[in-house]
């Protein structure tokens, strides 16, 4: 029961929780990076155009 609920580590079960957290972290970093890039591009266009 502990292994099924994820409270006890098991070598047979894949670390789905860690993979999900890693994917979420990568998505957040990409989203923030894209937002900053768009803001920088808009600022440069406003200043030089």
Explained architecture:
- The chain is an all-alpha fold and 49 residues long.
- It has helices spanning 2-5, 16-48.
- 76% of the residues lie in helices and 0% in strands.
The percent of residues in helical segments reads over 70%
Rg over CA atoms, rounded to whole Å, is 20 Å
Biggest beta-sheet profile = none
Tell me, briefly, the overall form. Answer: rod-shaped
User: How many strands appear in the DSSP assignment?
Assistant: 0
Query: Helix tally?
Result: 2
Defining key terms:
49 residues; single chain; mainly alpha
Blueprint (SSEs and pairs):
Layout lengths: L1 H4 L10 H33 L1
What is the gist of this entry?
The chain contains 2 helices and no strands. It is mainly alpha-helical and 49 residues long. Keywords: Membrane, Transmembrane, Transmembrane helix.
């Amino acid at each position: 029961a502990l292994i099924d609920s994820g409270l006890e580590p098991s070598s047979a079960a894949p670390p789905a929780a860690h993979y999900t957290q890693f994917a979420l972290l990568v998505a957040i970093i990409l989203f923030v990076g894209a937002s900053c890039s768009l803001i920088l591009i808009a600022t440069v266009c406003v200043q030089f155009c």
